[in-house]
Design brief:
Blueprint lengths: L9 E7 L3 E7 L3 H12 L4 E7 L9 E6 L5 H28 L2
Antiparallel strand pairs: 1-2, 2-4, 3-4
Helix pairs in contact: 1-2
Length: 102
């Protein structure tokens, strides 16, 4: 498991090898999966990143990440989540400053 878990949101590894990881992302929708995909496709060692939501009323997307093999997909996934957190924190700080007028 990666640390994106609470009662509603749970990430399960469905498949993993030296180049590929496939995750079931229970409780997540297009918002997070699309963000994760966009950030993943900018990573230099990612060769493929996509997600599929089988039915729009069931929030159980499957996210697939494939690397070039020089870095494990689990390590890349950790980097991606850290990057999203850093970018979100940076945006939040800039937004707060803008609202305060500073």
């Amino acid at each position: 498991m990666i640390p994106l878990e609470n009662k509603e949101n749970k990430v399960e590894i469905m498949e993993e090898d030296e180049r590929k990881i496939k995750l079931k992302m229970n409780g997540y929708g297009h918002t997070f999966c699309n963000l994760l995909q966009k950030v993943a496709l900018k990573h230099p060692h990612v060769t493929y990143a996509s997600y599929n939501i089988g039915h729009p009323l069931v929030q159980k997307p499957v996210f697939t990440l494939i690397t070039d093999g020089s870095v494990s997909p689990r390590e890349v996934l950790k980097e991606l989540v850290e990057r999203i957190i850093e970018d979100t924190d940076s945006f939040l700080e800039k937004f707060k400053n803008a609202v305060r007028g500073g």
